Amino acid sequence: MTNICKNLECVICCDQKDNILNMTIQCTHEPSTCQDCINKYVNDQLSQKNTLIVCLVDECNNTMEYQDVQRVVSNELFHKFDEVCLKLALQSVPGFRWCQGSSECSSGQIHIGGDEAPKMICERCGKATCYTHNSPWHEDLTCQEYDTLIGKVDIESQTYLEKNTKPCPKCGIHIQKIDGCDHVKCKIESCLMEFCWL
């Protein structure tokens, strides 16, 4: 049963709403979050491929069960949740790969050959995917040759980073200074370290 309270203030958006409710059936606190805020939160979590969605109330650690999501969010968002759950479950099946041969294809399949026979042909679109690299098939290259090519690209990237960037002294993320003074500020939100480029 959904416990909906009317004309209360949502603890997230601070608006007076008629659809204040709890995110889970297990929540024992008073209903405190509006359906719009819950929908936005669940959508954000799903965009990050996270299906372990915890109640927004600070002192509550209850996780939304499948039935909770179905009960609380919009039908469109529930279908998105269901699709993400399905995709995550399929990805955990040994030998399963999504088609990488075409950006329009959203099919996947179990590839019996594994790394021994890495060229996987999609049953839906007919395009080839490399099972080993989980990428579009590297035409005219064996997996070993492809690894060598990728290794060269990685070396070139590393050379560029060493010549044109400096690591942030706090978080280690590479920073490139394009112009301006030598006072630099890391733009990583959790860091924001300020240091001298010289």
Automatic annotation (TrEMBL):
Its EC number is 2.3.2.31. Coiled coil: none annotated. GO terms for biological process: protein ubiquitination. The keyword Translocase does not apply. The keyword DNA-binding does not apply. GO terms for molecular function: ubiquitin protein ligase activity; zinc ion binding. It catalyses: [E2 ubiquitin-conjugating enzyme]-S-ubiquitinyl-L-cysteine + [acceptor protein]-L-lysine = [E2 ubiquitin-conjugating enzyme]-L-cysteine + [acceptor protein]-N(6)-ubiquitinyl-L-lysine. Residues 6-198 form the RING-type domain. SUPFAM superfamilies: RING/U-box. PANTHER family: RBR FAMILY RING FINGER AND IBR DOMAIN-CONTAINING. This is RBR-type E3 ubiquitin transferase.
